[in-house]
Amino acid sequence: AFFANKVEHESRHCNGKGLQRQGSSSFDRVYTANQNCGHAYPTFLAVLWCAGLLCSQAPAAFAGLMYLFVRQKYFVGYLGERTQSIPGYLFGKRIILFLFLMSVAGILNYYLVYFFGSDFEIHIKTITSAISPLLLIP
User: Fold this and answer.
1) 84 touches 34 (CB < 8 A)
2) N or C end of the chain: which has fewer CB within 10 A?
């Protein structure tokens, strides 16, 4: 809602009438940042749900909250110079990778239990809980 509100505000500020794609460079930046964030959310939601269901809920929830803050930083950085959005973008990629690896670990654990009877769930939860605070390092 915050991103859409910014696009609408910038559109009215630049054109005076409803949403139009032609406008100033500030409108183009806001519109592009909104589109980039909108395109990234389905991937984020998929890996967040998989990591939470298949691996561990607490580290997945922590990474999910971090991702939302990082996307806010990316969006605000995109409103300024384009180089200001790069740290938020790279940080977001790292969080998505963490969630993806959690999902893969959960799937591998499921197959280890199914085929070999070995359950590493406690070890995986311990490792992900220990690694998740490292996401705070820029």
Assistant:
1) no
2) N
- In this structure, the number of other CB atoms found within 10 A of the CB of residue 104 comes to 15
Q: Exposed e or buried b for every residue in 42-80, given b needs 16+ CB within 10 A?
A: eebeebbebbbebbbeebbebbbebbeebbebbbebbee
1-136 CATH fold: Four Helix Bundle (Hemerythrin (Met), subunit A) (1.20.120)
- Segment holding 34, helix H or strand E: helix 25-54
SS3 73: helix
Across the chain, mean pLDDT equals: 83
The phi and psi torsions of 81 (rounded to 5 degrees) equal: -75, 150
pTM here?
A: 0.79
Output the six-digit token pair for 6: 């910014």
Extents of the domains making up the chain: 1-136
